[in-house]
Amino acid sequence: MKETLKTVSDWLTNYPLFTNFVKLAVLLVVAYIFYKITKKILVTTVRKITQKTKTKYDDTFFDDTLLTRTSYLIPLFIIDWFSSWIKGWDAFLSEAMHVLVLFTSLLVISSLLTSLTRLLEKTSKFKDRPIKGYIQVIKIVVWTWGIILLIGVLTSKDPWAIIGGLGALTAVVILVFRDTILSFVASIQISSYDLVKVGDWIEVPKYGADGDVIDLSLNVVKIQNWDKTISVIPTYKLLDETFKNWRGMVETGGRRIKRAIYIDQNSVRFVDKKLLEKFEKIDLLKDYIVRKKNEIEEDNRKHNVNPEVPVNGRRMTNIGTFREYLKAYLKNRNDVNKELTFLVRQLQPGPNGLPIEIYVFANTTEWGKYEEIQADIFDHILAVVPEFELRIFQNPTGGDFKELGGKIGA
Question: Is the dihedral angle over the CA atoms 390, 396, 402, 405 positive or is it negative?
Answer without folding.
Answer: positive
